[in-house]
Write a structure and sequence with these properties.
Blueprint (H helix, E strand, L loop, with lengths): L4 E3 L9 E8 L3 E8 L4 E8 H10 L4 E4 L5 H10 L3 E4 L2 H11 L6 H11 L13 H33 L13 H7 L6 H33 L2 H6 L7
Parallel strand pairs: 1-4, 2-5, 5-6
Antiparallel strand pairs: 2-3, 3-4
Helix pairs in contact: 3-4, 5-7, 6-7
Amino acid sequence: MSIKRILVNTIDTDLEYEVIGIDLAKNCVSAILLTTDGEIFGIDRLDYQELEKSAQELSPTIFAMEPCTEMNYMVQKLEDWGHHCIVISGKNVKDYVESHFSNQKTDLNDAQALAFLTKDTQLRTVKAKDPEQLKYASLTTLREQYVKQYRQTMVSLKGICQVWGLSISKGISGKARLKDMIENHAAFPAELRTALVGMVAHAQAVQKDLKSVTKILEELAKKDKACQLIQTVSGLV
């Protein structure tokens, strides 16, 4: 006979837990707590501050979660407090919910799937990024966003200018002369000219930030053995 899930509002830090499955959301988590005595407690909504406070008071426990934006930070915090974290792919959680909960996907069912999946010793888990890897990933993401912003701004700028008879060549887009060309193009209404000059300033500011982040990544790469080895591969750099 299956053990009934008991709904509670907080984590009882006086109990010993075998594993805690947490379904991470933006502002809170849903949690399933399996005690060493075999009881199943469920918390539908638990804010991060309370979770962290309880985690610091608990004896070493296994925490299970899915990969998501908050996951790497949460793993780092929990492991700093002496806990062990297991990250399980969303596909495994989905399959478990489908087979054990008749595909009734809820936050608590996901959390319970995470908790019980930790018992599968053959399950392939996801490795969380350590702070150094997270730094690389965040800087790379930031650089990609700068590249995207710059390209989108320049494409829009060139398109608007072309409508008013000003053709901007590829080689001149990043140069100071671009602002002069726009200011001196008589066909532009004054209001539009001001806005376009602002677009140029924005593009050049983004380009400056892009170069700054790129330089940081290049300096980090010089100190990383894996990056140095990759750069020796012909055709990659």
